[in-house]
Amino acid sequence: MLQSIVHVILTGLSTGMFIWLVASGLTLIFGVLGVLNFAHGSFYMLGAYFCFTVLKYLGANFWLGILLGPLCVCAVGFFVERFFLRNVYHIALPYQLLLTFAFVLIFDDMVKMVWGAGSVSPPGLATLSGSIEILGRKFPVYNLFIIAVGPLVALGLWGMIEKTWWGRIIRAASSDREMAAAIGVRVPALFTSVFLLGTWLGAVGGGLAVPYVGILTSGMGEAIIIDAFIVAVIGGLGSLKGAFVVALIIGVLSAFGARFFPVFDMFLTFILMAVVLLWKPQGLFGGSK
Amino acid sequence: MKKPWGTLLIILTICSLIGLGIFSGRFLIYLTIRVMLLGIFALGYNLLLGRTGLLSFGHGAFYAAGAYGLGFFSLQVTGHPLLAIIVGVLAAVILALIIGFFCVRHTEIYFSMLTLAFGMMVFSLIWNLRGLTGGDDGLVGIMRETLSFFGLFKIPIKTDRQFYFLVLAFFLLSTWVVHRLQNSPFGLALAGIRENPNRSEFAGVDVKNYRLTVFVISGAFAGLAGALETLLESNARPFMAHWGHSAEPILVSLLGGLLSFTGPLVGSVFFIAMREIIQRFTENWMLWFGLVLLVVIMGFRGGVVGVIEGLAGKSQKNLKE
Question: Is residue A265 included in any domain, yes or no?
């Protein structure tokens, strides 16, 4: 029993880390730009597919894939922000949401056109394969690696935002865009850079997911963006701390659901969401607005 | 548009719809039924989006509630179509009340995300509860039985042509109801909430209750469309609750024009026609819809109706900027 609970928790934590990687980019972009990016799940998906392509054509060096794949997605993100999103910051919110939604439709179908509508399997990787024994049962090393990556990313983000000059400018611009512009911050360029960082985080999540999920499908972005939305709502929109904590809770909760009540695996998450919304409508870590 | 011309246009449209039902071929009849169903869905939906300014990504759930409500009732209890449609709409209303209770406490982004999440919850329930809902197979074998009213009259709706007129009746009824709603004090209060919720609150409008009411009303229309589609296709599918389907009335309303009454109707015609044409050439028709959506948002936020009104010299309307 203990063995099985520990393993479910570990599995849940590794799932939670992927949700965190996507939710962190989503939250960062929302916190600074004020735009909820529906297409963020597509960046996760594109990250996975680009990484897959690098692995396939440049040899199966996983680290190279993780380095190059997300960079390609950043180029896509740059295109989206510079030529489309930048022009709609001032218009009504539904239009902004729908603009990013249009990109979901476009990217999903483009992936189907380029990589085929079926699923693709990446080549077997030697890096971090194998497993170690925990409480008498085998657990993949790669999942432990993922559990370590999540907090590192969180630490890096925290350091970047709290301790660097760039982070200080970001905090200034996100609390008062016009004031920041008035004292000489180049807000459009700053927004582009934040959007690229967020895109990169989502894409890295996708790249890391390649060995984890085993097969890539064009629906993988949609599945994770809904989890990321739920995390953002429960954690409090714009709160990175909330996103981190809640992503882990959701990961573990759905792992328990999948193990013990398979029919209701997603249902537990939704019940948690409903309870939190009744109790704290702004989310667990959300400030009052 | 001046009043007498407007009346003439309405009469002409109704006459041509009736004529279409009598004279046209089966394919065109099927497509027109599809347009009308999407029209009902989008008209009701646009009360929420265009009129009240709330962007819901979960109305597929109510569509599915209508479909599965009708399906269960006609498979388990009786196949009487009118009763089954009423049950379907009631199911949608109840679900909209529950989901709306949680969602209307929030606005803007929170509202959109919550409706999306709850909609997908309904989808995952339908998908997982295989014993009850048939899982990914859906509910199948729902028959279109003869319409009767306490034995007073009997109207068969077995063929698509006969069914067409039932859908037409519901379509005209829905259009009339939505039109009345939009121009009632209730509808004006909704527009007030869209423009400035705080001021509406100060003016004595119970904003939260108005939002919940319009949410439920739009859910009821979604349920009606879902129930009718189930009768048309004789099955209810889980995809009806999926967010890809929830996005359809949004695309339709945006394409036609969010702030005009006729926008969703014009949009439905364009949507179905475009889908038919694009699907001739490519499997990936969503890509093309995405591109159309981009163009509409970047350049033509008034939609088709907005462009026509602009050509006719009227000023462009937009959601508040």
Answer: yes
Contacts of residue B129 in chain A, CB cutoff 8 Å? 263
Read off the amino acid at residue B318.
N
In one-letter notation, the amino acid at residue B157 is I
Nearest to A102 among B108, B128, B290 (CB): B290
Query: CB contact, 8 Å: B298 with chain A?
Result: yes
Q: Which domain holds residue A109?
A: 2-279
Contact (CB<8Å) A267/B114: no
| CATH code (residue A80) | 1.10.3470
Residue A8 lies in a domain: yes
Continuous H helices in chain B: 3-23, 26-46, 60-76, 81-103, 108-128, 130-133, 160-183, 185-195, 197-202, 207-233, 243-256, 263-281, 285-299, 303-311
Length of chain B equals 321
Reduced to 3 states (helix: H, G, I; strand: E, B; else coil), residue B308 is: helix
Model pTM?
Answer: 0.84
Q: Chain A closest CA to B294's CA: distance in Å?
A: 6
Q: Do the Cβ atoms of A99 and B297 come within 8 Å?
A: yes
Q: What is the pLDDT along chain B (321 residues), one digit of tens a residue?
A: 456 777 888 888 888 888 887 888 888 888 888 899 999 999 999 888 888 888 888 899 999 999 999 988 888 887 788 888 899 999 999 999 999 988 888 777 778 888 888 888 888 888 888 778 877 788 887 877 777 776 677 777 777 778 888 888 899 999 999 888 888 888 888 888 888 888 888 887 788 888 899 999 999 999 999 999 988 888 888 888 888 888 889 888 888 887 788 888 888 998 888 888 888 887 777 888 888 888 888 877 777 777 777 777 665 555 654
CB-based contact B293 A101, cutoff 8 Å: yes
Whether residue A22 is contained in a domain is answered as yes
- Which of B53, B112, B290 is facing A105, going by the closest CB pair? B290
Test A94 with B298 for CB contact under 8 angstroms. Answer: no
Note every long-range contact of B304-307, with CB atoms under 8 Å and residues 24 or more positions apart, other chains counting: B304/B255, B304/B256, B304/B257, B304/B263, B304/B266, B304/B267, B304/B270, B305/B256, B305/B257, B305/B260, B305/B262, B305/B263, B305/B266, B306/B257, B306/B259, B306/B260
Q: How many domains does chain A have?
A: 1
CB contact under 8 A, A92 and B319: yes
